Amino acid sequence: DQQVKQNSPSLSVQEGRISILNCDYTNSMFDYFLWYKKYPAEGPTFLISISSIKDKNEDGRFTVFLNKSAKHLSLHIVPSQPGDSAVYFCAASPNAGNNRKLIWGLGTSLAVNP
Amino acid sequence: DTGVSQDPRHKITKRGQNVTFRCDPISEHNRLYWYRQTLGQGPEFLTYFQNEAQLEKSRLLSDRFSAERPKGSFSTLEIQRTEQGDSAMYLCASSETSGRVNEQFFGPGTRLTVL
Fold first, then answer.
1. Are B46 and B34 in contact (CB under 8 A)?
2. Residues in CB range of B52: below 8 A, 6 or more apart
3. Counting beta carbons within 10 angstroms of the beta carbon of residue A10, is it exposed (0 to 12), middle (13 to 18) or buried (19 or more)?
4. Interface contact A101, partner B, CB < 8 A
């Protein structure tokens, strides 16, 4: 049972435009959400995160929006650059003691075309 | 480089052999996690250490798997009697104990191929 869902396996965007990656979750116990970027043959790289007490967090070109009532979050990249081409994973952490293990989506492969 | 390091980066072994992977976390991080990622999937949690104590193990971690973190610094993950289904990328991550506890930083992974 996939608790974190990324329903778009791939996304193609023109350089300079906005990339919007979406993520849905089912577990109400999740209280922290993260986005990671992954290149082939490398480990995931942390991008940006958001606590469940907030609805927006911004860091440079990256903004994450959280809609708790809809159990939905999105990552906006503006402007998109060719170097942003990678697989993006949404991950969530349940509020369950000291173990902040991450539950992951399947990823969305973003291609930014020059 | 003060990031998470893993060794080896690649391991090819024959079915039935034992393999051991090493992870060196970021030095001030007390929490250490192991995940496994197969093609087309997101990483799946395997086990978690706080300092030297192994506090949780996933059902994915069968009896053939064992992980240690003897001095609360580096960690090892051993797979005994490897099977073809063990072929995957094994990822190690570390995080702080206070402050930004939720942000895990990953190593480059060890890609295991079992023939």
1. yes
2. B69, B70, B71, B72
3. exposed
4. yes
Q: Which tokens belong to B23? A: 């992870």
pLDDT of residue B28: 86
Judge whether B44 and B30 are in contact, CB under 8 Å: no
Write out chain B residues lying below 8 Å of A44, CB-based.
43, 91, 106
Q: Which of A59, A89, A102, A106 would you mutate first to test chain B, the one with the most B CBs within 10 A? A: A102
Instruction: Tell me how far apart the alpha carbons of residues A35 and A88 are, in angstroms, rounded to a whole number.
Output: 7
Q: Which residue, among A93, A35, A40, A59, has the nearest Cα to B31 in the 3D structure?
A: A93
Question: Hey, is the C-beta of B56 within 8 angstroms of any chain A C-beta?
Answer: yes
Tell me the C-alpha distance between A62 and A110, whole Å.
14
Per-residue pLDDT of B98-115, as tens digits, reads 767 778 999 999 999 999
Question: Can you tell me the mean pLDDT for A35-42?
Answer: 92
pLDDT for B1: 55
Among residues A62, A41, A49, the alpha carbon closest in space to that of A90 is found at: A49
pLDDT in tens, B24-57: 999 989 999 999 999 889 999 999 999 999 999 9
Beta-strand pair B75-79/B5-7: unpaired
